[in-house]
Amino acid sequence: MSVAGGDLKAGPGRFARRLLREWRLRGWPLRDERMLVAVSGGADSTALLLALEELRRVGLLGVEVVAAHLDHGLRGECGADDARWVEGLARVYGFECVVGRASVSERAREGRDNLEQAARRARYEFLAGAARECGASAVLVAHTLDDQAETVMLRLLRGSGADGLGGMMHERPLEAGGEVSLRRPLLTWARRADTEGYCRERGVEFRSDAMNDDERFARVRVRRKLLPLLSTFNPRAAEALARTASLLREESAALDELAAALLEVARAQLDTESEEEEVKTSEAVWVAVLARAAPALRRRALRLWLARARGNLRRLSRAHLHGVERLLEGERGGRVAELPGGSRVERRRGLLHFHPGSETSGGDES
Amino acid sequence: MSVAGGDLKAGPGRFARRLLREWRLRGWPLRDERMLVAVSGGADSTALLLALEELRRVGLLGVEVVAAHLDHGLRGECGADDARWVEGLARVYGFECVVGRASVSERAREGRDNLEQAARRARYEFLAGAARECGASAVLVAHTLDDQAETVMLRLLRGSGADGLGGMMHERPLEAGGEVSLRRPLLTWARRADTEGYCRERGVEFRSDAMNDDERFARVRVRRKLLPLLSTFNPRAAEALARTASLLREESAALDELAAALLEVARAQLDTESEEEEVKTSEAVWVAVLARAAPALRRRALRLWLARARGNLRRLSRAHLHGVERLLEGERGGRVAELPGGSRVERRRGLLHFHPGSETSGGDES
Predict the structure, then answer these.
(1) Which of B230, B233, B254 sits opposite A296 (nearest CB)?
(2) pLDDT above 70 covers what percent of chain A?
(3) Collapsed DSSP state (helix, strand, coil) of residue B191
(4) Residue A296: which of B234, B244, B250 has the nearest Cβ?
(5) Would you state the pLDDT for residue B72?
(6) Which of B244, B246, B262, B298 to mutate to test the interface with A (most CBs of A within 10 A)?
(7) Closest Cα to residue A127, out of A79, A86, A78, A68?
(8) Does the CA dihedral A146-A232-B240-A295 come out positive or negative?
(9) Are A247 and B218 an interchain contact pair (Cβ–Cβ within 8 Å)?
(10) Of A329-333, B9-13, B137-141, which has the strongest mean pLDDT?
């Protein structure tokens, strides 16, 4: 690896300039912030780290960057090699580096996650912990527009609505209610060819992950087979999918906002009109208010209500939610909808009541 | 062809029963209605006609059915053969039949439509005219769940938002503002294998259309290549796509309703507060009202406003709409957005004004 790269006199190259444009568009601080960059050693995250280095070197970005790498324990010696490689990369370019290690396959065996899910969960836990330790206020991950297109197709194959098809967000809290921000500075513009090209331009040979070639993973088959076929219909199919995701994310956000307002109306009437303590504490909402709303709105309002009343939406399927929705239809839809873990929703005197079950949080069915 | 089919004593068969269930779910009249059924002679429309015959024969449906067939003039003698075949089918099963003829390739050469679009336009014009002549209040078309899945994929490949991805509706007015209803009784449940199987069961050899095999058409490639690949990820991929479409259609409907309400607020304030006749007649809306709304909502409200002010949305691209949206951002977004045909939107004293251009309706650029 060599520190020099690009034409230093001419300012940053195309890839770094494009990153800076995104940075400004999102209003992210240009200096006085400490952030973690998740670096697997693949082309995407290596390109992100190199572009941050380039922007810092030419003085256009003054943020403090710490590289972070998790060895998932899935690749034996290769995993340790990757970790050493990332540490070396960080050292050469003058970045601090944090390395962690997890036993993902063990976690997958113990919990109900599959390998992909367990790896993802371990990674995000590691990043959250590392961010706290380093005092970082943001974590950067290198998902590209191709990753977004793959996500949209995977969700479409499951029959998701607008919230699922909205794909990944360019920024969100790393943990629910937490203060560390998760940012995806490559998501809306960088193609995989761009990150690979930029690494080559900088003379850095990125690592390749065997998991990225394993066609047992649906995501790998989407990448290798489905997206190339989509490109025969529209050479800019990945961009089209990303644009769809972005439109749907906005539509979903608008509906969420309105659903929250609808839920407030359904609950506010209760607070003023009901005298029964029992009703107040059982988290009830007015049937008549919800029944009048458009189906898409009341579905979201009910989901929000259940999330608050239950504490989460875990194990709540489309069928469960549909059962609760049907209670709004009056007698035809029944009086009680059972939910997993023994909790249930009951329609009584014009109200939906939530009754918590005996479920201990994080039940252990596999 | 033979009139007998299915076990008459046991009531209607599976396919006809499923059709009747959909019919009831939609609340369509079971008798005393006269309707046109578009019959190309392919498996889907033949199955629809046969199932209507079966339901009438066993007395479960009392509606009057007229078969309608358009020869697009694209297949020479084959087209005339198809028309004769459909007439024969209708005669055997005791239905009236209307046959029309169009010169679609000529229309495509003259207008700006491609062959598929011209054929579609000719078909719907024929159906509207035939419905008027027959005194039919509904037109039935035989789009299946597979057609819906294909439509969703084609729209996704163009980067559509929720309204496009919502696909086809199970019912809508045949013409904007018209009284004849277009219904798709097979859309939400029938697979192509079901319609073919039912035709075979009834002993009717449906026709096949060479256009359905022509891989120059994107829809044919989606059917032949893309959907089979999607099925390797999820055997019920077509159903998943149709479910997504249905969810997005509901979300889109909720947003449209709210956008119309937002537009009313933006205009109502003008009616009460503005004294200027000129402002009233130039179709103005308050910037401040729209700017406060969620992006997805104000985009729909603006599109609705432009559709009303211009008379239609013809030739209005995403970029044009984006230009109008940017006017809401204040100075940064400029003061004027030019629209095709010389019309434009101007931001002045806190209002957006629509200025019609000199465009004659249906301009002749190709």
Answers:
(1) B254
(2) 90
(3) coil
(4) B250
(5) 83
(6) B244
(7) A68
(8) positive
(9) no
(10) B137-141
Determine the pLDDT at residue B275: 55
Q: Which among B218, B233, B251 is the nearest to A221, CB-wise?
A: B233
pLDDT, tens only, A202-234: 999 999 876 777 888 899 999 999 999 999 999
Cβ–Cβ contacts within 10 Å for residue A53, how many? Answer: 22
CA distance B86 to chain A (A): 34
Q: Is the pLDDT of residue A77 over 80?
A: no
Look at residue B58 and tell me whether its pLDDT is greater than 70. yes
Strands A285-286 and A351-355 come out as antiparallel
The residues, ordered by sequence, that sit 6+ positions from A236 with a Cβ below 8 Å of its Cβ are none
Which residues in chain A are closer than 8 Å to B245, comparing Cβ atoms? none
Buried b / exposed e along A60-95 (16+ C-beta atoms within 10 A): bbebbbbbbbbbbbbeeeebeebbebbbebbeebeb
Q: What is the pLDDT of residues B180-204, one digit of tens each?
A: 999 999 999 999 999 999 999 999 9
**Which 3 state secondary structure label does DSSP give A180?**
coil
Position A268 scores a pLDDT of 55
State both tokens at A331. 């007698």
Among the partner residues B162, B218, B240, nearest to A248 by beta-carbon distance? B162
DSSP letters of A36-82?
A: EEE--SSHHHHHHHHHHHHHHHTTS-EEEEEEEEEE-SSSTHHHHHH
Rounded mean pLDDT of A97-107? Answer: 88
Whether residue A218 and residue B229 make contact (CB cut-off 8 A), yes or no, is: no
Q: Decide if A233 and B247 are in contact by the 8 Å CB cutoff.
A: no
Does B247 contact A161 at a Cβ distance shorter than 8 Å?
yes
Q: How confident is the model at residue A364 (pLDDT cuts 50, 70, 90)?
A: very low
Q: Which residues of A touch B297 (CB under 8 A)?
A: 254
In the A/B pair of chains, how many CB contacts fall below 8 A? Answer: 114
CB-based contact A255:A300 (threshold 8 Å): yes
Output the pLDDT for position B158.
86
pTM to 2 decimals?
Answer: 0.84
First to last CA, chain A: 46
Quick one: pLDDT band at residue A108, thresholds 50, 70, 90? confident
Over residues B59-77, mean pLDDT: 90
Tell me the two tokens of residue A364.
């252990």
- The answer to whether A164 and A251 are in contact (CB under 8 A) is no
The chain A residue lying nearest B234, using CA atoms, is A157
Q: Tell me the pLDDT of chain B averaged across its residues.
A: 87
- Cβ–Cβ contacts within 10 Å for residue B297, how many? 25
Token digits for B315? 């030739």
Predicted confidence band at B65 (pLDDT cuts at 50, 70, 90)?
very high
The Cα of B25 is separated from the nearest Cα of chain A by a number of Å equal to 14
- Interface check for B239 against chain A (CB to CB < 8 A): the answer is yes
Higher pLDDT, B110 or B180: B180
Q: Which residue of chain A comes nearest to B154, CA vs CA?
A: A233
Q: How confident is the prediction for chain A on average, in pLDDT? A: 87
What integer pLDDT is reported at residue B10 of this predicted model? 61
Residue recorded with tokens 């309002």: A301
- Residue by residue, DSSP assigns A283-344 as T-EEHHHHHHS-HHHHHHHHHHHHHHHHSS-TT--HHHHHHHHHGGGGGGG-SEEE-GGG-E
Pairing of strands B351-355, B285-286: antiparallel
Residue A362: pLDDT over 70: no
Does any CB of chain B come closer than 8 Å to the CB of residue A215? no
- CA separation for the pair B63, B34 (Å, rounded): 6
* Cβ-proximal residues to A276 (8 Å cutoff; 6+ apart), any chain: none
Contact with chain B for residue A58, Cβ under 8 A: no
Question: Among residues 267-326 of chain A, which lie with CB inside 8 Å of chain B?
Answer: 294-297, 299
